[in-house]
Structure formats: C-alpha cells, structure tokens
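Standup notes
- DV: blocked on the single-chain target, sequence here:
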Amino acid sequence: DEDFLIFTQDGKETETEKIPLSLILDNLRSSFNIGSIFRTAECLGISEILLCGYSATPENPKVCKTAVGTEKKVKWQHFEKVEQAIDFCKNKNISVYALETASNAKKISEINFPNPLAVILGNEALGISKEILKLVDEVVQIPLAGWKNSLNVGVAAAICSYEIRQ
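- DV (later): unblocked, structure below
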C-alpha cells in the first residue's frame, strides 16, 4: 500500500487552465447527468456550460449532489431554447459542433477542432433534432464498437471533451 500515492487535491484553490470550449446541454432530463458534466467540465478546464430548455441548473439540489462542489467553479448560463445558445455562440465567433450518432458525423479522433468551440449534447432519449443539426458547423461522433449505438450523455461529454483538450 505504501507504493501508491493517492492524490487528494480536492478543496485546494488551484487555477485550472481553461480551454476555449463550451458545452451546450440541449434539454437533458437527468440532473445526475448534468451534475456529472459539471464535474467533468471543472476537471478538464472547460470554459462554460450553456444549459437549454428544461435542463436543470445548479440551483437544483440533485445537480449539486452529483457535481460535488464543481457547480460553483464552472461558469454557466441558461437559455430557453438551444437555438438561442447557438446564436449566442455564433455571435461571439464560436464554432458550434453537435455530438450525435448520425450517418454524416465525422469521428472525433479525426477532427482538428477549432478554437473557440461549443459542442451540443442532446437529450438522453431523443438526441439532437434534425432542425438543430442543420444549424451547426459540423456533426461529430464517438466511434463505437458495441451493439448499443450510443453512450450515456455524461460519459460522451467526458470522452469528447477529453479528445478536444488533447
């Protein structure tokens, strides 16, 4: 046991280098998933989370429970409709990509991601609508090898964000 040093840095006020990435959460149903995405965003230095529609905000105790304090460290704002978040980003010259399992999607491992960038993550059951996919600059996907064609949205957010950070 003495051969392993476990890092315990929670609570230390270290400044994480922010990457020019925003995550747009489009009508996510699960407060657990939203809290998980906040935790991932804080750990990876994501600049901002844009919550849309009925996605719960950090004012929801269930989000806070899963976010374990990171909801206080990540900048966020809420939009009534995802189209408003897309317009907000495009007005700031931020490219907008969608993470979706679509036939025309490019593999995230083959993308040279622009800076700054916003990535839309869709509803757990419905994904991202065709109308919204027409508004984005690019549709990207995580290549999968299993029977199921999609991952949990929190897991997908982590994988995609990590790939972009690289």
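- Follow-up: Residues 27 and 55 are 5 Å apart (CA to CA).
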